[in-house]
């Protein structure tokens, strides 16, 4: 995908010309900034976000690497925090008619599309998502008491998921800096601020993980029936069969069905050769060594 230089602000153009760059796979060129590789568009969104986003103590920010379960986490937390306004068992839940990405803003995406977007207009608690690394988060996110839920996924499944998604289009970034490691340490150092969950545990124990998220977010008591309702409403089978997710499009043109492929753990075995899987294992070993983080 060719990104258009003329769509960028002068500030991004100036910065880009000073950054290390490499030919990209999904987009023509990638740029290294604060330890990670970015597309032009998401780099501009990130810069705007760093400059303008003011976190509030009541904010909830969902952080993931692309293809790590963002859509699922968005659906789960949306259902959880809005369960009084939208009972999960009601037949007219917003998630039944709207793709999760249209219900929860993607910070750097919104800032790229609308540099002057006013996040202060969103009702409280504001629920947002981002792929920004811990290092690059706007200062106010770190200094406020806002909550971060970080979800990571086995890098081999994430890689395969990204590869299939990329074939369907979409300018996304490939991760070089191990974002997982930074959030993992942040969650250990400050467990009230950052909750670390994995796609794999969400798959294995969806209900228990929702309860952990609810406790972390201070959502109060949640009935077992409600937890079951959220699990069912947000399941791969349920979300992927809805018209809003089969037929819809995001404002940037990405088809909503691209976010629902297989939703499995360990599916990388169908796509990766043994030697490529071993290479990824070696890189993971090197990057996560000594962190205590296991996939
Ligand atoms: P696969 O490509 O392995 O199937 P993201 O939302 O971060 O873009 O991640 C997309 C991945 O999450 C895809 O993985 C997709 O199928 C999976 N996914 C989407 N919705 C899901 C759900 N409700 N439950 C489980 N997995 C889901």
From TrEMBL:
<feature type="domain" description="Sulfotransferase">
    <location>
        <begin position="57"/>
        <end position="292"/>
    </location>
</feature>
<comment type="similarity">
    <text>Belongs to the sulfotransferase 1 family.</text>
</comment>
<protein>
    <recommendedName>
        <fullName>Sulfotransferase domain-containing protein</fullName>
    </recommendedName>
</protein>
